[in-house]
Amino acid sequence: MAAAIDIALPRPSSTPGTEAAAPVKIVVRDLTVRYGDTVALDAVSMDIPSHRVTALIGPSGCGKSSFLRCLNRMNDHIPAARIEGQVMIDDDPLYHPAVDPVALRRRVGMVFQKSNPFPKSIFDNVAFGPRVHGVRDAVQLRGIVERTLRQAALWDEVADRLERSALELSGGQQQRLCIARALAVDPEILLMDEPASALDPIATAKIEELIHELKSAYTIVIVTHNMQQAARVSDLTAYFYLGRLIEFGPTERLFTNPTRQETEDYITGRFG
Amino acid sequence: MPLHTDRTYEEHLGELRTAVLEMGGLVEEQIGQAVRALIERNEPLARSTIARDHTVNRFDVEIDDLCLKLLALHQPAARDLRLITTALKITTDLERIGDMAEHIAERAVELVHESPIKPYIDIPRMAELSRDMLHRSLDAFVREDVELALAVCVADDQIDKLHEQLFRELLSFMVEDPTTVTRAMRLLFVSKCLERVGDHATNIAEMVIFMVKGRSIRHMDTPPRDL
């Protein structure tokens, strides 16, 4: 079954509520992931546009997280995982033997469901990545820390206590710290796996506002179980079911007038 | 289509559909009754029609409340969202049709005390046509029938033509005999009301097309062929 994909269609810039088509950042072709005998992802093809927020939705086990993990080769760590097909970032094949996964993850940052700061100071959490990549200069490090904490909308809340332990921060602050940490190595793409599912509505709103801010500088792919969140933060939404990409298109259209019955049933809460 | 996993939600959406239909049935009856009161010179019937407009207005408020509740509590999407926004707009049209029935009944009360200018020919036809359009637009809503809704939009021309025809005829009466002016103006007002009922029925039909197809055909000169 072919997925309904309509992002490639040029949209007139005069139409209210639509944006001009963005260049493609990530190209995925026939991506299949198997864990042992289980097919987690079945021949998924998708063009993810640059400087847009793409949301991946679908019920548990639909393959959306497997898909996300393929985008920075996180599945490499799972011995039983076998991956076929192609993923390219700006025409660079991701699964080429010459690609160094560590260097790759500098281009593709990730934020997880549960905030996972290191048991270190706020400063050292953010400076960790740049230090690993060889930044030693204290002034430069301080500059990176301030810039990314500002980008993550956390600076004003922690500027006077950068040396305190990150574990003293609230859940919402910890999650924004993890976003700052991901941004500190200057990635091009930010992957977010349910970044707000463990947060209260105010912290969630801050993260969502942050996502809006960040898309001007980064390409963002977000997995969420919260459909209203997908509707609020994303420009494009992809609906996955049983390992297949069922529908991919502008969020506004997908939530008002989806093309496929399976999408309609899922977003309207008809789970059969 | 499978049912919602959330039964309460499913029930509320069912209630909404039923309420829209009940309101539609009521205003259809109101139009019929108002025109009958006019033709039969039946003042009590006209007065009971006027009195019943309150019930129509109450439906309007209740359906709005139900829609707001659904929007606030269930964050509807896709088809459900379109159903609710359609219901909100349809009830405004239905409420206006209710007002038209009331206006016609008011003219009927006035005309009972005046001698008729001419036998009623075009007004019953217009009433029949507008009620039929309304009935079919509501049928299209229940059955989610786009073809039927399109047919309603097309039918509006007929009523418009009858209205123009009646306008010219009443004008000639008024020119020939100025003592008919008051009565002719009242009839012209009735004709205009029925013409408006056709417009509101067309609005409903257009919203039904939006509800089913997710595409708006409102304010187009001719409806698109490919829906």
Descriptive notes:
The complex is a heterodimer of chains A (272) and B (227). Chain A is an alpha/beta fold. Helix content of chain A is 33%, strand content 25%. In chain A, the strands form two sheets. Chain A has a seven-stranded mixed sheet with strand order 1-11-10-4-9-8-7, with helices on both faces. Chain A has a four-stranded antiparallel sheet with strand order 3-2-5-6, with helices on one face. In chain A, strand 2 and strand 3 (38-49) form a beta hairpin. Residues 6-19 of chain A have low confidence and may be disordered. Chain B is mainly α. Chain B has a single domain, classed as Phosphate transport system protein phou homolog 2, domain 2 (Methane Monooxygenase Hydroxylase, Chain G, domain 1), CATH 1.20.58.220. Chain B is built from six helices and no strands. In chain B, helix 1 packs antiparallel against helix 2. The two termini of chain B are 21 Å apart. The model of chain B has no long low-confidence stretch (mean pLDDT 94).
Q: What's a quick, concise take on this entry?
A:
By secondary structure, chain A is of the alpha/beta class. Chain A has 10 helices and 11 strands.
Please outline the helices and strands:
The complex is a heterodimer of chains A (272) and B (227).
Chain A: E1 4-5, E2 24-35, E3 38-49, E4 53-57, H1 64-70, E5 81-89, E6 92-93, H2 101-107, E7 108-111, H3 122-132, H4 138-151, H5 155-158, H6 171-183, E8 189-193, H7 201-214, E9 219-223, H8 227-233, E10 236-241, E11 244-250, H9 251-256, H10 261-267
Parallel strand pairs in A: 1-11, 4-9, 4-10, 7-8, 8-9
Antiparallel strand pairs in A: 2-3, 2-5, 5-6, 10-11
Chain B: H1 7-39, H2 43-74, H3 78-112, H4 122-143, H5 146-176, H6 181-213
Helix pairs in contact in B: 1-2, 1-3, 1-4, 2-3, 3-6, 4-5, 4-6, 5-6
